[in-house]
Amino acid sequence: ILADDVQAEGAKITAAFKQWLDQGAENNNNNWELEKENYEGWRVKIAEQDGNQGWLLLRPSLHDPDIVINVESEEYGGMAVHLKHLLQFFKSHPEFHASVSAVEDYVAKNTPQHA
Q1: 3-state helix, strand, coil in the chain (%, to 5)
Q2: What pLDDT is attached to residue 29?
Q3: How confident is the model at residue 39 (pLDDT cuts 50, 70, 90)?
Q4: Which one-letter DSSP state was computed for residue 16?
Q5: d(Cα 105, Cα 49) in Å, to the nearest integer?
Q6: Which of 67, 60, 30 lies closest to 45, judged by CA?
Q7: Cα(7)–Cα(53) distance, rounded to whole angstroms?
Q8: N or C terminus of the chain: which is more exposed, having fewer CB within 10 Å?
Q9: Which of 41, 106, 40 is nearest to 78 (CA)?
Q10: How far from 28 is each of 15, 34, 67, 92, 101, CA to CA, in Å?
């Protein structure tokens, strides 16, 4: 988070993330299912191929000026695929004062050729 008020910016990002999910996550609502609210942030179950299951959690850090993104997948290259979709959210919000360059770098290096 690059904003002066880190907590306010983190709250703005997580609220917008929930709204994005509620609105269908860029037409990916069949695969991404928001779990009920918890104190960590917003966690999404992700239906993958062949009954596999992944998940993604987005939350503001409690101590650092960061948005924490945790992601898991049961598929080869699945984490990069899920993060690539998450980048659509950030690209739709140029008003955020946050850098996603580490996520972009990971996606660029780890996206399977067929994804």
Answers
A1: 40, 20, 40
A2: 56
A3: confident
A4: H
A5: 25
A6: 30
A7: 31
A8: C
A9: 106
A10: 18, 12, 22, 15, 23
